[in-house]
Amino acid sequence: MKRDWLPLLLIPALMIGALPLIGSPASWVTLTVAGLAMGLMIFIMASGLTLTFGLMDVLNFGHGAFIAVGAFVAASVMLALAPWMTADSIWLNLAAIGPAVLAAMVVSGVLGLGFERIIVRPVYGQHLKQILVTTGGLIVAEQLLKVIWGPDQITLSRPTALRGAFLFGDVAIEKYRVLAVVVGLVVFAALALTLNRTRLGLLIRAGVENGEMVEALGYRIRRLFVGVFVVGSALAGLGGAMWGLYQETVTAAIGAQVAVLVFIVIIIGGLGSVGGCFVGALLVGLTANYIGFLAPKVALGSNILLMAMVLLWRPQGLYPVAKR
Amino acid sequence: MLRSILSDDLPKSRWLALALVAILVGLAVAPFLFPGAKSLNVAAKICVFIVLAASFDLLLGYTGIVSFAHTMFFGIGAYGVAISLTRMGAGWDAVAVGVVAGLVVAIVLATVIGLFSLRVRTIFFAMITLAVASAFAILASQLSDLTGGEDGLNYRLPAALRASFSFGDTLFGVRLNGRLLDYYLVYAASLALILVLLRIVNSPFGSVLMAIRENPFRAEAIGYRTVVYRTIASCIAAATAALAGALLALWSSQTNPDTTLSFDIMVDILLMVVIGGMGTMYGAVIGAVLLVFAQNYLQDLLAIANKALAGVPLLANLFHPDRWLLWLGVAFILCVYFFPAGIVGRLRQKR
Fold this sequence. Notes:
The complex is a heterodimer of chains A (324) and B (351).
Chain A: H1 6-22, H2 25-56, H3 63-80, H4 82-86, H5 90-120, H6 127-149, E1 154-155, E2 165-168, E3 171-174, H7 175-197, H8 199-209, H9 211-216, H10 221-247, E4 249-250, H11 254-269, H12 274-294, H13 299-313
Antiparallel strand pairs in A: 1-4, 2-3
Chain B: H1 2-5, H2 14-33, H3 37-63, H4 70-88, H5 92-117, H6 122-142, H7 144-147, E1 153-154, E2 166-171, E3 174-177, H8 178-201, H9 204-214, H10 216-222, H11 226-252, E4 254-255, H12 257-260, H13 263-276, H14 281-308, H15 313-318, H16 324-338, H17 342-348
Antiparallel strand pairs in B: 1-4, 2-3
Helix pairs in contact in B: 2-14, 3-8, 3-11, 3-13, 3-14, 4-5, 4-11, 5-11, 8-11, 9-10, 9-11, 13-14, 13-17, 14-17
């Protein structure tokens, strides 16, 4: 199969196109790194959603709940480990973040397992009910978060080692954003390797293309789906934890807010496509940061505009998944 | 006579008919039965939300598409009237301009969104409307010169709708002032809009919508352009929602993002339609009444439970008065699973 490089070229095109508009190369570098960091965080959260859709035709409107849960769990762990967070040693800082992120992923993953069982399973194949029930799940989850953690927002400060910025001449790059980019790239690489180089990935990709055929060959696609759902939820939890540290506040509404970005990304990418999701997330992150710098008033509309333009070009998203 | 007013869509259940008559009469005599500004406010809100929920039902229940942008159109209608009353002064010409402007914007926007996203799949529509609506809500709070930002707009209503306007003494101890007139304006307009919606869903056009809901592929094969029908349905729903918004603006003399554009209101509408019963206009009516009541009285009930459980750590929070949405959310999920036809469907079921 011939690879479709055009959408990939959009990212450098966008970067280069923004340079003359922004003018100063120093701010351009800062904005680009910020955009990449934001995009990769969104990608982490969105990848599971797009895969579950591709695999079982299930669109989970409650995906935001996992993001919020991840953020809250991570925040709790980090607050409990506050002395390590404020310590002046990067290793102690990481020793606090590590368990926090891990806890966030585990709790979100377990929640995903329950969510799949209780909320999603009874409504396979019924789109309308799926949208309604998962939205209901989001409402209930958001309220439960308020029950457990209280209705007020939690303030979360970044650990000492991740505050401030690296300075190269007059270019300032926030340290946390570098970490976000690294983690995002690692997740992307891991996903890409799993999907393209392992037997499991082969089955998942085959399931996205034609689920019935995979079933006919004797593989239980349901089980595969549950696995993908859980991993997707755990990744959403990871993304939520990172997003919480990025914003330095955690509220119960965080899930619904970020979910909007996630939806825009998977629509742009083409429902079901991980590669498209990656490109879409980077486009959204970069555009949001560039426009936020150039014209702050319209920044929030810029994502919609981006989505509209992509859909005008390719109505099914950047990388349409062939089957549907 | 009754048959033709209701477009031949009778309640078909004794209890449902009873409930509807009770709502109709109750709202008609509400100003006299429950005097006081607060209860009148609740009654007017019920009227507005009945229209809003019914127009959403046209989309969700009859056409089978989920839109998360319904509050956006509601807000467009409300802000249309609010902005024109703020800019042009408190006259009826301003109201007319506001309503027309709101309608035009709502219909144009609904057409654009529909043509963009309804061609592909309905699931696209749900996501795109969600994205557009959230961007719109943020835009409305950003453009503070026009919309008053987060605080919204406070404006004066036309003279005939103000409390200071009086058209006679008292009747049954209730002062005949502009507020009363305003309430009956909202009531009459809501009733008319509901009857129009009933007419629409029971017309041949409505039948096509239901056919599309049941099997879009087949409807297309028979020769109906599903994109066109779905887009027209979403335009009608958007226009009706805008009118409901205009009514709210005319009632409350203030319009802000929280009362018109927030996602919470979208959730409320969703709950109203699903719990009341999708695909039956009457379900929207029942659901709207129930939910507005629940918002006002479930909290009191929960407060009692909360007090009783004051010592228990987590349970007490679970029954905190502010958590009423949790319980309605659970009811919502159960409804979708076990009573997809909602309260009305249950009442209509043959024993």
